[in-house]
Amino acid sequence: MDECVILKEHQHGLRRDRIAHEALRVLTRLDEAGYKAYLCGGGVRDLLLGRTPKDFDIATDARPEEVKKIFRNCRIIGRRFKLAHVFFRDVIIETATFRALLDTPPPEAEDVPLPSRRRTDVPDPTFATRGGVIVRDNVYGTPEEDARRRDFTINGLFYNIADGSIIDYVGGLKDLENRVLRVIGDPETRFHEDPVRMVRAVRIAAQLDFQIEAGARETIVRLSGELKNSSRERLHEEMLKILNCGSAGKVFDRAWQKGLFQRIYPAFAEWLQSPAGHPALHWVKKALRQFDVWKQAGLKPMPALQHALLFGPFIEGLAGTFAAEGLPEFEAVLQAVNTVLRDKANLTQIPKAVVFDVERILGIQVQMRKSSGQSKYASRLRQRNGFEEALIYLKFAGGLDPARKELLARWMAPAQPAKHSPAPSSPPPHS
Ligand code: ATP
Ligand code: MG
Question: What are the boundaries of each domain within the chain?
Answer without folding.
Answer: 1-173, 179-264, 265-412
